[in-house]
Design a protein that fits this description.
Largest sheet: 7 strands, mixed
Strand order of the largest sheet: 3-2-1-4-5-6-7
Bound molecules: glycinamide ribonucleotide
Shape: globular
Order of helices and strands: EHEEHEHEHEEH
Helix content: 25-40%
Distance between the termini: 12 Å
Number of domains: 1
Number of helices: 5
Radius of gyration: 16 Å
């Protein structure tokens, strides 16, 4: 069963739900994340860092909650915090992330703006297994996305997201089938 972690608008969560994947729980590091509203009747919970003594304690509480909901595969769908070893060891090689660049190029929280600032002609989408680094870990799927003349952060991100919404469900499906 899949648990999804979100921080933002949740369009990738929506793509997973629309693909009919077995999402069983949705958690966020932000209480007001708009993505949580997309979860419908699914259980949701927020784990704000400020409510815990440390990041490790927060991540342990989040892993406990996910496992209570029978989650064994965790998908980061726009989740913008690094995960601690205390979380990752609970789901070994079973946490995956989608990122709006051709990793290892342009990791981080501002990848789309960084790519435009760097003047790249080609962007992309990467789905990868999560390790303790920033948007690092073994790559599962990657697809190129063109950068067009006059692109803004919004127009490029929109084009990237259209690819994310296809690639992320595909990667999750393949991971579930391989198990
Ligand atoms: C997506 O573009 C995702 O690749 C990116 O956040 C966006 C979330 O959109 N993730 C990262 O940058 C991770 N480093 P969404 O909330 O609409 O799914």
């Amino acid at each position: 069963m899949i648990g999804v972690l979100v921080s933002g608008g949740g369009t990738n969560l929506q793509a997973l739900l629309d693909a009919g994947l077995p999402v069983r729980a949705v958690a966020s590091n932000k209480r007001g994340a708009p993505a949580l509203a997309r979860a419908g009747d699914l259980p949701t919970a927020s784990f704000e860092l400020s409510d815990y003594a440390s990041r490790a304690e927060r991540d342990t509480a989040m892993a406990d909650w996910l496992q209570q909901h029978d989650v064994d595969v965790v998908v980061l769908a726009g989740y913008m915090h690094l995960l601690t070893p205390q979380f990752l060891e609970r789901f070994p090689a079973r946490v995956i992330n989608v990122h709006p660049s051709l990793l290892p190029d342009f990791p981080g929280a501002h990848a789309v703006a960084d790519q435009l600032a760097a003047g790249v002609r080609e962007s992309g989408v990467t789905v990868h297994v999560v390790d303790e680094g920033i948007d690092s870990g073994p790559i599962l799927l990657q697809e190129r996305v063109p950068v067009l003349e006059g692109d803004t952060v919004e127009t490029l991100h929109e084009r990237i997201k259209r690819v994310e919404h296809r690639l992320l469900p595909q990667a999750v499906e393949e991971l579930l089938c391989a198990r």
